[in-house]
Amino acid sequence: MQKGPLHDVSLEHLVALYQEGYGLPRAFYLDTALYEHELETIWRRGSLFAGHTCELPRPGDLFTFTLDTDSVLVIRADERQIRAFHNICTHRGTLLCEEERGNVRALVCPYHQWTFSRNGTLLRCAGMHEGIDKKALGLRPLHVKTCEGLIFVSFAETPPPFEGACEVMAPQAHSQGLARAKVAKVIEYEIAANWKLVWENNRECYHCNVNHPQYIKSNFDIYEDERSSPLMRQRLEEALARSKAAWQNEGLTITHERGGLAAFPDVERNIWYSATRTVLREDYESESMDGRRVAPLMGDYRNAHVGVLRLRALPNFWNHSSCDHAVSTRLLPAGLHKTKARLTWLVAGDAQEDVDYRLDDLTAFWRLTSEQDWELCERVQRGVRSSAYRPGPLSQTREYNLEAFLRWYVRQLSL
Amino acid sequence: MQKGPLHDVSLEHLVALYQEGYGLPRAFYLDTALYEHELETIWRRGSLFAGHTCELPRPGDLFTFTLDTDSVLVIRADERQIRAFHNICTHRGTLLCEEERGNVRALVCPYHQWTFSRNGTLLRCAGMHEGIDKKALGLRPLHVKTCEGLIFVSFAETPPPFEGACEVMAPQAHSQGLARAKVAKVIEYEIAANWKLVWENNRECYHCNVNHPQYIKSNFDIYEDERSSPLMRQRLEEALARSKAAWQNEGLTITHERGGLAAFPDVERNIWYSATRTVLREDYESESMDGRRVAPLMGDYRNAHVGVLRLRALPNFWNHSSCDHAVSTRLLPAGLHKTKARLTWLVAGDAQEDVDYRLDDLTAFWRLTSEQDWELCERVQRGVRSSAYRPGPLSQTREYNLEAFLRWYVRQLSL
Amino acid sequence: MQKGPLHDVSLEHLVALYQEGYGLPRAFYLDTALYEHELETIWRRGSLFAGHTCELPRPGDLFTFTLDTDSVLVIRADERQIRAFHNICTHRGTLLCEEERGNVRALVCPYHQWTFSRNGTLLRCAGMHEGIDKKALGLRPLHVKTCEGLIFVSFAETPPPFEGACEVMAPQAHSQGLARAKVAKVIEYEIAANWKLVWENNRECYHCNVNHPQYIKSNFDIYEDERSSPLMRQRLEEALARSKAAWQNEGLTITHERGGLAAFPDVERNIWYSATRTVLREDYESESMDGRRVAPLMGDYRNAHVGVLRLRALPNFWNHSSCDHAVSTRLLPAGLHKTKARLTWLVAGDAQEDVDYRLDDLTAFWRLTSEQDWELCERVQRGVRSSAYRPGPLSQTREYNLEAFLRWYVRQLSL
Predict the structure, then answer these.
(1) Pairing relation of β-strands C308-313 and C273-278?
(2) String of b and e for A185-198 (b: at least 16 CB within 10 Å)?
(3) Which chain A residues contact residue C384 at CB under 8 A?
(4) Do the Cβ atoms of A377 and A341 come closer than 8 Å?
(5) ipTM of this predicted complex?
(6) Contact C389 A93 (CB under 8 A)
(7) Is the separation of the CB atoms in A273 and A164 below 8 Å?
(8) How far is A377 from chain B (nearest CA, A)?
(9) A110 to chain C: which residues are within 8 Å by CB?
(10) Mean pLDDT of all residues in chain A?
């Protein structure tokens, strides 16, 4: 009897179905066993963006997040380092902290009051018998790395090297002052689509012209070199010239001088991170609905002509930072067909709501753009469920980054 | 460790569990792998009733439907033929049309604006690289056959012969004028039962006496020859005699002269379609609550004494047509334990709502009867989930058609 | 490709993962195949508490319950015995009785009116062909045993011996008069946790101090001998001395003279049932919020100094009975991660609501305590879903009964 897509299908067979230049075969979006394999080989092996150090200003501040069914607790510990632990008691497995954020002096399990320090050490377990090895019963830690205020964690025993990522991101991100920023707003989304469809959407702007009429006004993403009209090309050149001068004054480097999306990821060199600074359109000082600033300048910026900084890290992070605000997107799979996205808007640390910025103005641009994208992702998800779905060809001129993502993804599966 | 019902059980083993004269073993209602096998061997191989040509009067008119997770788009194309396509873009698999019905000049994918003609040809895919083979990227078609205004589609590469079905249905159905009819009302139901239970219910009237007190007043379904009282037998004979005379005037043939249900399907001859005309009870001109007409005469009929035409086609169609209206039922599995039923009421093409017919009067009879049946199907579904369920004996006098359905079904699995 | 937890894992392998002295490995809470195995080896093999004889005073009275997807009907039959049947028709499997309770003269299937006597005999099946063996088509019975008004059923062909259980429970329970009692209130809960977590919670009072501040005021459960303060020990001794004298007058036996929980179950002797009578704290006459009686004395009791009777039977029953009321808890798994709990409050048979007792006062104590427990169980369920969960050590002094439960459970799997 024929089984459903992928039951008893080997990974090798599945990977062999993938053809470069085309989308993923259907089973990649529908198979539970593959999803679990992705959790092992991609999500629990890579570096995951967790949040911002500025979310945890004081010792004891914490937030939690959930990767599939794994709850993780990120906390600023006693010596002010950021630490991360599996959010379950080492006694019976009880979920330690139900809240999304809070501040604690110690972590006390509500079931039997086992008590852990903010460093994860088991401090008290009254009621246990003599001879319990308390040292072996501390909270299970995750590796933590921070870079310019961005917190990355890894479930892996031996996490991937992080230095290369920080070396690329830090020089670009430093001026933005993310480590000194303030969270102005968080919005959580549940996208009814496999997590890969969210990245596929992110990695091409072929869909932008019709689907993001607001977004494309701010940038040159849809103006690939070879397709730009002379007028557009001229505008891009002017923007670049203007920006270069301004940026040199600020000590910023221009990294992406062409229209279109910067190439990312790079499967050959196993580059899963990226930082680029790109020009905005002539009328735009910020990625806002009308291009005007929506908050005070951030970080080291002394004027608004800083274009837009874009950070990315697979498998779960991207950030767009304008002169006045930054928006981080964190993805987390919550099942084969469900992806959680958390958008965090950051402003200068001393900016005051309703005085220096208004939330509606601040959030409108990326809220709209993101929601437009989630709807597209869900529509593709509904389509690829069809038994008639066959991967189509990808545009070499408009979907090169999507292709790069798929090649990176397939490579990860087999590592 | 014992697995759930049917995991790793071969189809041969499963089929061997079935015993003629009895209901289906439990696994047939509970196993996901079997359900997927049914999709392949029955639903994606047979001819499926999709809808009526009169639902698509103008070029560009379309409707969509979903078999399990496969969305299909049925459209009247440029040359007025009815065409059917998988409702997904050949680029990335995006669902093309979310709406249940509409009218389009061309089919434009909302993601990247690939544009398909109403004949399925890829017209435009701006943004793709040079050398794309547009001819190979048209929408994936399904086979379409129409017969007297009924649209049948097939997912199969080589669909089953349809001529025999149309040769049987057309002569009976022609006078009804379905191709010239008008859709007065559509009601969609979601039945919490496996699709086979819906057919099992349809294929016997052993349950009618108590469960359909309204329905049985209109016909002789529950009066099997051998069990009829002399009075009933006399009434049936009188109805037949009266009808024969009237029908000859109309050029109609009587095909089912006995009480009870006409035999269908016929597994030995692989007959999956049927058309019969049967007498109504003496007080009934139409299958309505009080037997009175609820709309103007349809098609070629010149008087009301046409009995009732019944059309059937496995795996998903039946129709009851009275002199004044017709009701088509379309089944579609939407999961192992969920079946969607769409009932469509048709009247004469020029009949006007609230002038020539009132929706409440038109729909009451089959709405009531159908809902009574769905409730029974759901109750059986709840019962067969029990590990204590064993198939019981079928009545040779009252459930012969149910038995015929099961034998047809089991045969299909193994073809 | 790595599969989810337990796919294709043998029972032997799974059981080998369990280490005495520790909690259960994660797969025990997450694997569907194991859950189905538990249904076979524990739930459909053991004796299950179904309800109370006093719920069915008259012939024809019935109630239904559902184990996973198996619906069972318990009825007082014509000769006043309690009988139990699978609640499905032997014809097509239709669920016979949808209601949770009722009174019938006969059981009539709504589909085709097959009619069964209250003893399960098939009385009528009009419409079937000649030669049907009606004797073979009676309702499928379950074994039924009653003991002091408690009804136990077994799905097994050969149920486990019940005599030992009744010999232990009856002498303790007789004075309570459960067979002559009246159901004052029933509350059904749906706990989002595997059924074993509910038992694990029940089998230790290590969690009581913080989580059940009301409950612990009434009893000595948290005062294990070795840890009691001298004052507590003195109070326990005084309570015992006082109670012994009173109980001797009543003909009651004291069975659990120490603080803490009585040892149960006993895997070595395969003891799955238990009955103990324990002292209440000095201010408590009843397990109520303030210790005062909340209903008239039950059964043979002539005064309130009867402590508390506790009955238990694996896999699904416990009962706390005070002088004035009794509370039975019945568990039924409703899926891998869902457990239904039904609490039944009983009072003296002639007690009248709002005259002799008020429902709020009667139910507050165990409603509160139970709901506190369900919340803890659900929180552990959320925790053990984490891939980082590893079984922790159990307290030898506070979780000995939990350990005993796990050892009993693992033993059952392999029988």
Answers:
(1) antiparallel
(2) bbeebebbbbbbbb
(3) 88, 93
(4) no
(5) 0.95
(6) yes
(7) yes
(8) 9
(9) 210-211, 376, 379
(10) 93
Q: CA A272 to CA A315: how far, in whole Å?
A: 8
What is residue C64's three-state secondary structure?
strand
Query: Which residue of C3, C392, C397 is in closest CB contact with A127?
Result: C397
What's the pLDDT score for residue B252? 80
Contacts of B389 in chain C (CB under 8 A): 86, 88, 93
Cα dihedral A136, A142, A145, A151 in deg (nearest 10): -130
The percent of residues above 70 in pLDDT, for chain B, comes to: 96
Q: What is the dihedral of CA C131, C134, C136, C137, to 10 degrees?
A: 120
Upper half-sphere CA count for residue A329 (Cβ side, 13 Å): 27
Residues C49 and B367 sit within 8 Å (Cβ to Cβ)? no
- CA distance linking residue C331 with residue B230, whole number of Å: 57
pLDDT number for residue B2? 41
**Inter-chain CB pairs, B–C, below 8 Å:** 99
C136 to chain B: closest CA residue: B392
Q: Do C92 and B23 touch (CB under 8 A)?
A: yes
Contact B211 C110 (CB under 8 A): yes
Count of A-B CB contacts under 8 Å: 99
Q: What's the confidence (pLDDT) of residue B251? A: 78
The contacts of residue A412 (CB under 8 Å, 6+ apart) are A41, A42, A45, A46
Residue type, B363: T
Q: How many residues does chain C have?
A: 415
DSSP secondary-structure letter at A85? E
> A295-305: string of b/e by CB count within 10 Å (b at 16+)?
bbbbbebeebb
Chains linked to C by 3 or more Cβ pairs within 8 Å? A, B
Distances (CA, A) of C244 to A332, B97, B135, B223, C306: 62, 80, 95, 76, 9
Mean pLDDT by 10 residues, chain A (415 residues): 50 93 97 95 97 98 98 95 98 97 98 98 96 97 98 96 96 95 98 98 96 92 72 86 82 75 90 93 95 97 93 98 98 98 98 98 98 98 98 96 97 90
Name every chain A residue with its beta carbon within 8 A of the beta carbon of C26.
93
Question: How far is residue B116 from each of residues A206, B65, B145, B206, measured CA to CA in Å?
Answer: 18, 19, 22, 50
| Domains of chain C, each with CATH number or no CATH | 48-160 (2.102.10.10), 171-414 (3.90.380.10)
Q: Half-sphere exposure (CA, 13 Å, Cβ side) for A280? A: 27
Query: Who among B14, B69, B129 is closest to A396 (CB)?
Result: B129
One digit per residue, pLDDT tens: chain C, 415 residues? 444 444 456 888 899 999 999 999 999 999 999 999 999 999 999 999 999 999 999 999 999 999 999 999 999 999 899 999 999 999 999 999 999 999 999 999 999 999 999 999 999 999 999 999 999 999 999 999 999 999 999 999 999 999 999 999 999 999 999 999 999 999 999 999 999 999 999 999 999 999 999 999 998 888 765 566 788 888 888 888 888 888 887 778 767 777 778 899 999 998 999 999 999 998 999 999 999 999 999 999 999 989 999 999 999 999 999 999 999 999 999 999 999 999 999 999 999 999 999 999 999 999 999 999 999 999 999 999 999 999 999 999 999 999 999 999 999 998 8
How many beta carbons lie within 10 A of that of residue C359, not counting itself? 13
Contacts of B26 in chain C (CB under 8 A): 93
Look up residue B110 and give its two tokens.
């909302």
Mutation for testing the A interface, residue in B67, B68, B92, B124 having most A CBs under 10 Å: B92
- At B8 the pLDDT is 53
Residues C398, C204 contacting (CB under 8 angstroms):
yes
